[in-house]
Amino acid sequence: MKKSFPIILAISIALILAMTFTGPVYAKKLIIFAGGPAGGTFQVVAQSVATYKPIKEMDYNIKVQSSGGSTENLRKVNSGKAHFGTVYSGHVYAGRNGLMVNDATKYENVMAMAYLYEAPAQLVVRKGSGIKSVKDLEGMKVGVGNAGSGAYAYCEQFFTHLGMWD
How far apart are the first and last CA of the chain? Predict the structure, then answer.
């Protein structure tokens, strides 16, 4: 041990001097941006923001994470697991006020900061299906989107209001 002590001391001093006099270490601040399902509009929006040249030139490294979508992003941002997320404005309002379907939590650590685009929704059925009204869908399987997505949440709200959510 006595013979290795000078070597350990010399290495320690060299490391301290190297860290002291090598100048500032520069690292960009990491920002997590919750997008949406891979290939979906929310994911494309988040990726576009992250790769926009003026953003890339700033002191931030934006990491885009795929997610289930709008309501999952609301929860991620509220909990601090993401810094930003694409969320439908109706979900921000409902979440902040404890009005989400089957979720009375008040998500008070979120706020809307930018308008991105309009997103009208359509309920579509196959031509010749015999379905003439929403009530004709009772008991049928309906594709409503991924759990955690805005499409799913809005369908859940819509069909629950009609007494048809199962």
Answer: 73
Q: Decide the pairing of beta strands 60-65 and 29-34.
A: parallel
Tens digits of residue pLDDT in 63-79: 999 999 999 999 999 99
Neighbours of 134 (CB within 10 A): 14
Which residues are paired to 61 by β-bridges? 30
Which residue's structure tokens are 């941006």? Answer: 33
Structure tokens of 148?
A: 């955690």
Rounded to whole angstroms, the Cα distance separating 42 from 31 reads: 17
Q: How many C-beta atoms lie closer than 10 Å to residue 63's C-beta?
A: 13
3-state SS, one letter per residue, for 107-148: CCCCCCCCCCCCCCCCCCCCCCCCCCCHHHHCCCCCCCCCCC
What span, in angstroms and rounded, lies between the C-alpha atoms of 98 and 111?
Answer: 14
The torsion defined by the Cα of 148, 151, 157 and 160, in degrees rounded to 10, comes to -100
- pTM here is 0.70
Predicted local confidence at residue 59, as pLDDT: 85
What are phi and psi for residue 54, nearest 5 degrees?
-60, -30
